Each structure stands twice: as C-alpha cells, then as structure tokens.
Amino acid sequence: MGKAEGRPARLSVGVVGAGRVGPALAAALRMAGHRPVAASGVSEASRRRAAALLPDVPLMEPAAVLAKADLVLLTVPDDTLPGLVKGLAETGAVRPGQLLVHTSGRYGTAVLDPALRAGALPLALHPVMTFSGTPVDVQRLAGCSFGVTAPGELRLAAEALVIEMGGEPEWIEEAARPLYHAALAIGANHLVTLVAQSMDLLRASGVTEPGRMLGPLLGAALDNALRSGDTALTGPVARGDAGTVAAHLDELRAHAPETVASYVAMARATADRALANGMLKPEFAEALLGALADGAGRADGGTP
C-alpha cells in the first residue's frame, strides 16, 4: 500500500457487517477521501443503516465485498469474528495485500491469522465509542480514542487510518486486549445499567423527569472521577454512614428487590477503594460492611 508522509493511499472500502459501527467508520473514511464500494447486511435494520450512512453503496454477500475492496472493515459481533475470518480465508475470498480491519475490542490481530496466511494485512482498530446507528456517530468519532493493534510494519498505516477517521490512536499490545476490553465494558456498559436503575427508582419515588434531575449530578460526578479518581468519591459509603446504607437496602428490598445485589456489590467495591485511599475510616468500615452483609443476606433469603 503506497503512502506519502504516513498517509494511506486512497482506498476502496468494503464493510462486512452493516451494524452500528461499520457504516459510520466507512462514512468517516469517505470524508477522508476513501471510496466505500460495497457492504453486506442481512437484517432490515442493517439495510436502513447502510442506506442512511452509505447511500448508493450496494449490498452484497461478504465474499463479493472482499472482491471489490482494498480495505475491508469486519464489523461483526466478537463471537462471530473468528468463524467469519476462517470462512473467508478458506473460500479464497481474501486477496494478498488486502487490508483486513476488525473493530472488536476483545481481539488483537491474532484472530486474523487465517487471513494473514492468505496474504492479507491485519489491523485491529477498535473505536472507544458507543454507536447509535445514525449519522451522528460520524461526528462522535472526532477525538474518539481507538485501541490499535497491528504488526510493527503496519503500525503507521493503522494509526494514519484512525487519524483520518477523526480518532486518536492508542497502542494496545496483543496480550492486553482482553483486559483493555474488560475495562471499557465496566466503564461504559455497567454505567448504562446503573443509570437506568437510578432512573427507575427515581420514577418510583415520584420524580417525573429523572433524566433532568440526574443529568447535572452524573455529569459532575463523571467529570470529577475522570479528573480526580477515587478522591472524587462522595456519599454514605465513602463517609461510612452505615445507618443510611441499611435504610437504602430496606427500601430497595421493599420496592426494587432486583437492585439489591448490584447495590451491595458496588457499595462493597466503593468501600474497598475508600478504605484504600484513606477516605473511609477503619472504625466506620466495620459497621458499614456489616450493614452490607446483612442486606445481602436478607436479599438471598438467608440469615444475615
């Protein structure tokens, strides 16, 4: 692949898996001067996304996409990726010199080994962003970090592609990919669950606009956490207010028993971090942990 000053040559781009990610990345590459030429998608939703983000780009079978494209984005679920790569390589769909890019956070480039043996150039470019499947996703790529894993000789090309999509490349070693992905899942996926639980409980307590109430609070909490880490902790667990925590658990058992386990788990994790950094005094920690153990025992129907 030719390049000048680290910038990839203009490439024909294919997308295998027109989910929420692939069309957005292909649209960003189009804005950088590359040429999306083909996509694959089965569901009606994927066809709608392709139509919205990649108008006039034909939909076809994955093997046909590879036949038309110099750069192929494999944007399929993690569990599907190994079988897809193996199948494409075994059927001869992969061409020597073809850039094969997957966007999985879990995997590095080893998952692309079957394609590598067929002559492909393997890249793992994982955008650290949540996608909606709408055109706004392309705008959100501006300044978005990408977890990048590639062979040393392709590192500059991988980083250049990320920059062209508006992102910021962050090098992740192959062996570190699962840990890296776990960290992102804890931060992003679990955050959505916690916020949804909080909104449900606020509605149950009579708040008509829980999103409006939570927005400033959670925005400030996120900003403080990103700036200050554990020292941003506030609330009854960090203070060691065992009575307040016990009252919370009583209310949750009465009104939303399905949330007790997650409350206890997160409160224990919070207590551990508050103890470690000196915010939670040991003399308060015993009563607090006792309240959490009591709450967990009652939720399980056992004897606390």
- The class by helix and strand makeup works out as alpha/beta
Strand order of the largest sheet: 4-3-5-6-7-8-9
- The N- and C-terminal alpha carbons lie at a distance of 65 Å
Number of helical regions: 13
Spans with pLDDT under 50 lasting ≥5 residues? 1-6
For the biggest sheet, the summary is:
7 strands, mixed
Mean pLDDT rating: 93
Relative helix content: 40-55%
Instruction: Please indicate the percent range of residues in DSSP E strands (runs of 2 or more).
Output: 5-15%
Written as H for each helix and E for each strand, in order along the chain, the element string is EEEHEHHEHEHEHEHEHHHHHH
Name the shape in a single word.
Answer: elongated
Number of strands: 9
Radius of gyration over C-alpha positions, nearest whole angstrom? 24 Å
Write the layout of secondary structure elements.
Elements: E1 3-4, E2 7-8, E3 12-16, H1 22-31, E4 35-40, H2 44-53, H3 62-68, E5 71-74, H4 81-90, E6 99-102, H5 113-117, E7 121-127, H6 136-140, E8 145-149, H7 155-164, E9 168-171, H8 177-204, H9 210-228, H10 236-239, H11 242-255, H12 260-276, H13 282-299
Parallel strand pairs: 3-4, 3-5, 5-6, 6-7, 8-9
Antiparallel strand pairs: 1-2, 7-8
Helix pairs in contact: 11-13, 12-13
Task: Give a description of the structure.
Helix content is 52%, strand content 13%. Mean pLDDT is 93; it is low at 1-6. Helix 7 (155-164) links the parallel strand 8 (145-149) and strand 9 (168-171). The chain has helices at residues 22-31, 44-53, 62-68, 81-90, 113-117, 136-140, 155-164, 177-204, 210-228, 236-239, 242-255, 260-276, 282-299; strands at residues 3-4, 7-8, 12-16, 35-40, 71-74, 99-102, 121-127, 145-149, 168-171. It has a seven-stranded mixed sheet with strand order 4-3-5-6-7-8-9, with helices on both faces. A two-stranded antiparallel sheet has the order 1-2. The radius of gyration is 24 Å and the shape is elongated. By secondary structure, it is of the alpha/beta class. 35% of the residues are buried.
